[in-house]
Design goal:
The chain is an alpha+beta fold and 76 residues long. The chain has 1 helix and 4 strands; from the N terminus they run E-H-E-E-E. It is elongated.
Amino acid sequence: MTLITSTSNPTLHTKLSTAWNDLRKPGWVMDKYDHYKVVFLHPSGEIAFSLDTNRAMYDSRSLSGSRPATYNKLDE
């Protein structure tokens, strides 16, 4: 798990920190299509961000912009 900190990637860390403070959403911040989890480092208390790759999974049977789900002969 790679953490985005003020020393590892100062530009992205500043961008994510600003977005997190502006949105006031606890625990998560978005940058375009990427979701980052907010992590507090102990004992320093510094805020870091971790890229979350599992949040991009969507249900293929969604009715928004796709066809309704079709089922096989088990329904009969």
